[in-house]
Fold these 4 entries.
Entry 1:
Amino acid sequence: MRETIVVLKTIRNLLELIRFSHTLFALPFALLAAVMAWRLAGFDWRDLVGILLCMVTARSFAMALNRLADRRLDANNPRTAGRHLPAGILGVAQVTLFAAMCAAGFVASTLLFLPNRLPLILAIPVLVFLAGYSYAKRFTALAHFWLGTALALSPIAAWIAIRGETVMANPADLLPSLVLGGAVLAWVAGFDIIYACQDYDVDCRAELHSMPVRLGIPAALRLAAACHLGTIVLLACLPLAYPPLGWIYWAGVAAAGALLIYEHLLVRPDDLSRVNAAFFNVNAIISLGLFAVGSLDLLVGSG
């Protein structure tokens, strides 16, 4: 009984370490791309299982590795010193094993559940790219865009998982997922720049790279707003690449635009106290909301 409790507590700590609940930031876009692809190719439950497993394991691997790479930096940052590794709640060996298991689970999921071989072929390159983000801020202020690209892979990968054979025969078939992925890239980069403003002083002392450090907080917030404008432009262009989307989707894009404006009204250069509200609450609503309206649109056929 005691051993069971210890195991359950370790699992809970690992899920807290990787902020498992934040999987919903990227997962809805992967599922929206899957719904779009299923409308063309037909639904297969193996696709759904494979996409879900790949999303969860890939993100868990990336987050665990990020916590490992940043554990000393986190220890010197008052905002992050209480995280599991610097606080000693979890050990390096435990988190390393967890990351390795997630990486293995990601590769196995592409092999066992996804019907074409492209996901398996691309699995290791994707893991390497995800791992690279954990070190990006040590040498480039573009780390926010690296993170954005990492999450942008989710709708692109979901599309490839379902339509890989078509993509190999006709690369232009990938265009809808690339437009959606571009919107995700700009969206994530924008809110990550906002989030990084909290660590401006710490990053300066540690000689880490970020847009707030490079540009200053006011200019970084303007860049974040420009990224989010790009998000709305790309979301508005998606029906051009994928005509089945109609007025329900357009309403969702308008709502997302309003929410992004609200997000930027929450944060000012001289008041970063509401960054968490902007980062977690608003962005969760945007991702889940766009998945909901996009799926509903395709279900009822408003296009």
Entry 2:
Amino acid sequence: MAVTGPVARLGGERLKVKLLGSSLEDSATRQYVSSYLINDAIAIDAGCVGFYGRPRQQESIKHLFLTHAHIDHVASLPIFIENAWTPAGDCCTVYGIPETLDAVQNHIFNNVIWPDFVAFSRNMPPFLRLCPLQDEVSVDAAGFKITPVRVNHLIPTVGFVVSNGGKAVIFGADSGPTNRLWELAHNTPGLQAVFVEACFPNTMKGLAESSRHLTPEMFSREVAKMPAGIKVIAVHIKVRYRDQVIRELKALRLPGLEIGECEKEYEF
């Protein structure tokens, strides 16, 4: 299924990912919520994309992919949609599995938490378009092929394999131990890096298991399932426990490990 739009198709070798900051102070190390920006045209999750830059910068993001509907991944979605809207009708397409899009419409754009921009979009220049994703069926957006893959979380959640035909990265999303995503990683040409969560310290293994997140020990077992020789970027570290989690991650001495920093642009 191909999705095309007014954004110019990007060059085959250019792949840049920025973790967006979510704190006014020390934004590089305080990732309270999740948003990733790819080549300034595609966003993964909307935790803070609605607070990023100026409205004109947000307007350039024409494709937004949601991993799931938890608040730290959709918190700024309504703000983003409002900021990015123009009367020209050249709106953003929001992609997600059906369960995620249903949650967004029922619990955000419901005329209680926020106006129903989905309904508004039927009778005026649209605020957004919703595009349901099918499991492991790729869509084309702004020169990239993006493939959703189910992972292991408390609610229906997908990670994304993102490829420009020459290079690829994977966003693991919120997940406990999972397998299918890493099986596909072994068959992804040009895979450069994986962004994978490391939420809780090892002392909170019980909480991590019950909430379907990872500790550094669990993180290392996930890395063992991935292809060798790729960069592994640890993200979604709970800010209160960040120093402890980083110490435990570094103690693993995993090749290719990097601690994710917000506002840093990763180029592959």
Entry 3:
Amino acid sequence: MGIHHTHSHAPPRGSSRVLLAAVGITAGYALVEAIGGWLSGSLALLADAGHMVSDAMALGLAAGAAIVAQRPATTSHTFGLGRVEVVAATFNAFFLLGVVAAVAWAAIGRLQNPVPVSGGTVLLIASAGLVINVVVAWMLSRGVQSLNVRAAFLHVLGDLLGSVAALVSGAVILLTGWTPIDPLLSLFICALIVVSCIRLLREALHVVMEAVPRDLELEEVGRAMAAVDGVREVHDLHIWQVASGSVMLTAHLIIDSYRDWDRTHLAVREVLERNFDITHVTLQPEALTK
């Protein structure tokens, strides 16, 4: 007897191409920002350059994960490799927290021992960096919104905020000469990124723990199934995600008779797809009469 696997659990295609393009743009500008930060003495600019290097690595990892996630299911991985994107998102979030810790440590040192900063150079390079980050963020926001892509977007958003911080820092220093603004803005951006990372990690853990997707209510789904003509009761209902956008459902249905099972089965599947966008469904009938 042959075994056939006809369901695809891989995330939608398209995210890998966007991520690879973002890698090239981000890595190229990171070099420009690093040189500018070194020449100007700006911690905000150097921090943003380091952040962009980490982003290029993170985007590369995300692109690789998106490609691997498209591989078909096998006899050893029957749900496919879609969850590799969740793993990549988790790694990227922890990696970004490490970068934030390094930047915060350097910023505290700068507050204790201020150094001269060339406001004009910072302003010029940060302006260009802001444009680059807006373009990359726009590319990612229009792509497939998997956890993996959202983690990559979070990195780029951190860069965008870093560019804004460097821009404000350069303007303040140029106009007033007050250099503490540079590390202070760096610390503010670090705090924002930490909050976003924690939220992302919570969502990744939610998927790994096979919890019910946050946009679904188990009881509501069960009531909708039980309301289908021919269904007496729904029990052993389980809903979980293999990866972002890949929702699974299994349940036992008590029905009147096996004679009408084909019709009932089809009706329940239609309700699940129409009302909850759940298409991978496994139902076990239990008839009151033969």
Entry 4:
Amino acid sequence: MPNAKTTTNVRDRILEHVDDLPPQQCTIADYLLEHLDTVPFLSVPELARRCGVSEATIVRFGQRIGFSGFSELKMALVELLQSRLGVDEDRDGGDLGEDLLESVAAHEGRNIRLTVENIEREVFAAIAELVFSADHVYTFGMGISAYLAELAAYTLVQVGVAAHPMSTGFTSPREQLVALKGTDLVLVISLPPYSRQSLELVTAAADAGVATVVLSDRLSAPPALRAGRSLAVRSDNLTFTNAVAAMTVVINALATAVATRHPEEAIDAFAKISRVLSDDPDVISGEG
């Protein structure tokens, strides 16, 4: 019997088979990747309705990716949800908040440590240089990744890199590629569930000859596989959401690498930003 104690294992199993799945089962795979947190609570008929396929196709999908059927796949996710959200009944409820805070902090620390240990320094340095050399860096993400993309653009501007987050409001993110030049760079942040928009954007940018970098939770993520360069940044969490501490560390490290290797540009940007803020009546002095 397959052992799928983490969403990572279930997700990996889906991704390993997705290229070989029939079209209707690809639809199921896409839905599961985007709704791993709610699928455990869906019946086969309800999931079939949402995916627009037959109930038999749902069962065959579970078997196709290595489970005995959909029931076993769903139970793996149910057990995971219970293990991640369960509370020790013997523990004093008064200490629960402190325990959870410590657990989350430790988990984030582990994500950061493993990310730093596994990133190849030559790849990291090459990406930092790509970021600095680009005429303009465009960042993109969906869901929580959209906020991280905005953070990346903001952080890069602080060290003198022309950067701007791409909007998620367009009918297709690819529309915004019309204005990009071959000397620009597209930086995509893609954490699970991997959005089709991010994958399409990376593919279209690469096809147009624009440099692409993807920051994702694994190098085997669909957008990362299509990118010119990519970094794996762990986002494992105690719930089904993504933890983001490691991603913010990597974003900060990229900006810091640019600043330390090209200090004149960073200092010039800092001076200009300081003058802007000093003239802004809405900015309150931090002195005190």
